[in-house]
Amino acid sequence: MILTPRIPALFLCVAGLAAWISTARGDDGYRLWLRYDQMAAGPLKTAYAAVLPRIVLATPTGSDSATLAAARDELATGLGGLLGFMPRITIEKRTDIPSAAGEEGYGLKRTEPGTLVISAWQDVGVLHGAFALLRAIQTRQPVEQFDTVSAPKIQRRILDHWDELDGFVERGYAGRSLWEWSVLPDYKNPRYRDYARACASLGLNGAELTNVNAPILVMTPGYLVKVAALADVFRPYGIRVYLTAKFSAPKELGGLPTADPLDPAVIAWWKAKVDEIYRYVPDFGGLLVKASSEGQPGPQDYGRTHADGANVMADALARHGGIVMWRAFVYQPSSTLDRVRQAAAEFKGLDGKFRDNVVVQIKNGPLDFMPREPFHPLFGSMPKTNLAIELQITQEYLGASIELAYLAPLFKEALESDTYRAGPGTTVAHIVDGSVDHHKLTVIAGVANTGTDRDWTGHPLAQSNWYAFGRLAWDHTLTSEQIADEWTKMTYSDEPKVLGTITKMLLASRETVVDYSMPLGLHHIMAEGSHYGPGPWSIVQGPGFRADWSPPYYHQADAAGLGASRSADGSNSIADYAPELAALWGNVDTCPENLLLWFHHVSWDYKMKSGRPMWDELCLRYQQGVDEIRGIQKQWDSLEHDIDPERFAHVQALLRLQVANACNWRDACLLYFQTFSKRPLPAGVEPPAHDLAYYEAVKIRYFPGTPGDPKVTR
Ligand code: GCW
């Protein structure tokens, strides 16, 4: 079957012209990494053109579909833009499809001269293969790279959108929610298709549309018809929709007197509600649940367990193939246990008690998406339960979308953490991808950083975090360097100076943010509310608030020293980990210095590996962070004549702001901790610009994404 892409040749001329105009006019970043600008003539372009006059889309059925149409459109747009010609695309029924491609993977193979075959067992695999081919060309791979087979290591790869129905995005820093509920289903913004293209280009296959502090109305017919419209746009791109479910829905929506998960009427209500959802969205992915956490209703309101709560929804979803993602982000006002130990205490005993279509969704660390945490102990202690990792792409604790923090190194640090559960090498990634316990259901989730800003992510370089999450969700063995290289080539340039400079900036940035904000294992010392900027002094006030919402609970600064005591002589959180780690982290002399103040209360004079006392090391680390971000700023400034003016100026301005913020962090924290240490700043540390009272008086209001505050979307 010969199918010329639905995009007539005239379009390509227009597309080429439009691309030229956008580049000449400057560039707002809207195209993300799917930019397809014309390659310069040369041997590589010639080599590509020689391979690609004909592309065969090979599937077991050989029949066309909306997904294959999407693949054809992308290939025509991409190759038309990159190479300036339209390939001849045919669909063929084939059986020689690589078994290793699995359900959603693909094979790419150059066969007879001038023909490339994209083969897959499912149409969505062909789509993923088409994006992989375009990525290979955008990253200037040799044509030999076109012979490959790839399959995702994790089954469900989902963006969680903490989006409210009023357009507010909790911890969102890129404008409003993408989902225009007030005009759906009648008007489907073309931007939804571009969102689906961007996700599909990474192999993501799930979009969870609503906040975990769940908006209950989304499960009512008036909203389900809107959800169905979004699902219709996403479906050709292999993306299923998920929703959050408020545990009290049987009461609030169903009018029942209880939401007790063991109550027969409640069981029947969830079944009926789920059946209703599937009438609107036949391929609905499932429900994400935050329950008995931070004031959200949950099974514990009825003396039931998390498993009881998850299983009632799981039983309703099972017949439809839906799943429950039950979050383990729990800590109770009544508990006197160290907050970082509470989820383990609540969930460990439930291992094996969740249904097979339930996954317990666990943040990468035991506290809360800090710039650095040890991995969450539950990854090493629930072999009989499907465990998903939840990573935060939006930068709630790493400078919002005002500061550059490329998160692939953070994601990799978490994924490659060794739990020792089944001996050395039992990494979090291997727990999550099911290869250790051979679980059939495997899930990875990322809290999205997208919004209606033209560049989608608020900071032009923050697009790299959406990209990094998606690429790691497909293949967690990719390195931060490989991902930075790909994204930079696709989004900016493969020109050596630009490529080298931007990748260097990206790869240094997360550690830089750690150094100037929470070095040496310090954590949760940010400003309250906005979580933007320093606040080590802040005590969160108000009825129902609690000590573990305030920084002193975590830094425990006093005349003797600094840091949280979590070894055997403290809260003993090391006991939640394998003996190998308890020994390593539990001894102040063997604990890695980047987690020292996470696990130990260390005297100001403690001799660090550098030979310096801890106080001096702390001060110099903050200074190092300031020096590092100044260096990153200079690196970007050096690209003034290499980057389109619009994106250059935007990033330049944000980096200037980031340098100022880094100085604020250093000055505020060192002045505050100095009130305990009573020691002078060592040589090499710049004097603070103001006194401590100045920094303590800073109150950030109307910060985007801050819940409770007047809700602000930038
Ligand atoms: O880190 C905290 C955030 C909340 C968020 C919560 C969670 C959606 O400050 O904004 O609520 O975690 O993960 O549920």
Description:
It is a single chain. The chain has 21 helices and 16 strands. The chain is an alpha/beta fold and 714 residues long. It folds into three domains: 149 residues, 2-Layer Sandwich (Chitobiase, domain 2), CATH 3.30.379.10; 298 residues, TIM Barrel (Alpha-Beta Barrel), CATH 3.20.20; 146 residues, Alpha-d-glucuronidase, C-terminal Domain, CATH 3.90.1330. The strands form three sheets. It has an eight-stranded parallel barrel with strand order 7-8-9-10-11-12-13-14. The protein has a six-stranded mixed beta sheet with strand order 1-3-2-5-4-6. The two termini are 49 Å apart. Bound molecules: 4-O-methyl-beta-D-glucopyranuronic acid. 4-O-methyl-beta-D-glucopyranuronic acid binds next to loops.
Write a concise synopsis of the structure shown.
Mean pLDDT is about 95; it is low at about 1-15 and about 20-25. Helices cover about 35% and strands about 10% of the residues. It is built from 21 helices and 16 strands.
